[in-house]
Amino acid sequence: MPFIQVKSNVEIPSEKEVACKEALGKSISLLPGKSEQWLMVNIEGSQALYFQGKRDPAAYVEVKLYGGENKAAFDKFTSEVTKILSSLLGIQPNRIYVSYFTTTSWGYAGSNF
Fold this sequence. Notes:
Strand content: 25-35%
Radius of gyration: 14 Å
Shape: globular
Helix content: 25-40%
CATH topology: Macrophage Migration Inhibitory Factor
Low-confidence stretches: none
CATH architecture: 2-Layer Sandwich
Distance between the termini: 10 Å
Mean pLDDT: 97
Order of helices and strands: EHEEHEEE
Strand order of the largest sheet: 2-1-3-4
């Protein structure tokens, strides 16, 4: 039950949005027990996002997960997300934040896991 939200101040045309979604879908398997089958993605470009006082290309990524933390897997996934956004959107790695939020309660189809 992962949810990934990407916010960036870069304009993201639909073809790059789809490419990001597909790349995130493939890489989600780096997190144990996660797959694209349950992945929900939200990509927001052209946001009023400032980092270090500048509006140079930047991104903030939230990864929300059902289950516990796995720091080693998070390290691998952060590396991959950074590569994806750098490659597809031209954002420098040092201008990308990735944060993780885990929960043991997740609702779906009218009930909770």
